[in-house]
Amino acid sequence: MKKNILGSVIKDARKKKKLTQEQLSKLTGYSQNTISNHENGNRSLDEDNIKTYATALGLTSDDLFEALDIKNSLENKIMIIDKKQTKIDNLLDVYSQLEGSRQTKVYNFAEQQLEEQNSNVVQFPIQNSHEEVQAYLSAGTGILNYYEADKDIVEVPADAPEHDWIFKIVGDSMKPLFDTGDIVYVDEFKQGTDTIQNGRIYVVEVDGEAYIKKVYVYEETKILRLVSLNKDYTDLLFNFENSDINFIGRVII
Predict the structure, then answer these.
(1) pTM summary value
(2) Comparing C-alpha atoms, which of 45, 53, 10, 28 is closest to residue 222?
(3) DSSP states of 112-160
(4) How much helix, strand and coil, in percent to the nearest 5, is found in the chain?
(5) Domains of the chain in sequence order
(6) Contact 215, 153 (CB under 8 A)
(7) Of the candidates 236, 204, 207, which has an alpha carbon nearest to the alpha carbon of residue 223?
(8) Residue 91 in contact with residue 80, Cβ under 8 Å?
(9) CA 106, CA 108: separation in Å to the nearest integer?
(10) CA-CA distances (angstroms) from residue 194 to 11, 144, 188, 189?
């Protein structure tokens, strides 16, 4: 089991800079053996290690985490494509072994299934009834104190998703998805039951202040990364050991 998640990213960045492990050793002060273990995921990385590697490679810690996100996203997409292609290949393999008349039957059956599937799509009209609920107002940076926030009355459409809380956005840190005046619906995060899904948007309380941000939890380094959708805002990094962190709820999108 790998002890860190950034090793492969550091290795990719080193190779992109055309540096050997020996050269990176001189830049970081780490032995070649330590670098090898870090890159292979056999040794854990703390915040200082990450910053040291980032500086040596002419990057920031955020750059390394961003590269990790991109790499994971690409790997997931490739995995999905591979699974779909395997199903297609298996189907074609079976189809090619059938006699002509049986191939025709398979094709006709597939067409029939597609028609039935399409005919089962029903459009339901959206009712225009509304209900009034209390909303919590956020501040311009996406930060709010939801315990002491002023309350507002907002109208909620009847087709709104089921939710536990409503927050009203003030500020542009979550543009283009959310802008000032937008309403977000939040499901309560149940401690000990729910798990954080990296890349989803949550309301998170850190040291008494709550943030509406895209969340990434790095268990190996015990780091919480909060990402604004608006690129004008830098990412926020918190250490679980040094900060009081409480996940309030997940934003329903």
Answers:
(1) 0.49
(2) 45
(3) HHHHHHHHT--PPPPP--EEEEEEEE--TBSEE-TTTPPEEEEEEETTP
(4) 35, 25, 40
(5) 1-95 (1.10.260.40), 130-252 (2.10.109.10)
(6) no
(7) 236
(8) no
(9) 6
(10) 33, 23, 9, 6
- Give the integer Cα–Cα distance in Å for 90 and 20: 44
Distance CA 146, CA 161 (A): 21
Closest by Cα among 232, 214, 225, 227 to 172: 232
Cβ pair 146, 203 in contact under 8 A: yes
- The helix/strand/coil state of 171 is strand
Find, among 135, 36, 218, the residue nearest to 245 by Cα.
218
Consecutive 10-residue averages of pLDDT for the chain (253 residues):
80 91 94 92 88 92 83 62 68 76 79 69 43 42 51 66 77 82 83 83 85 87 88 87 89 82
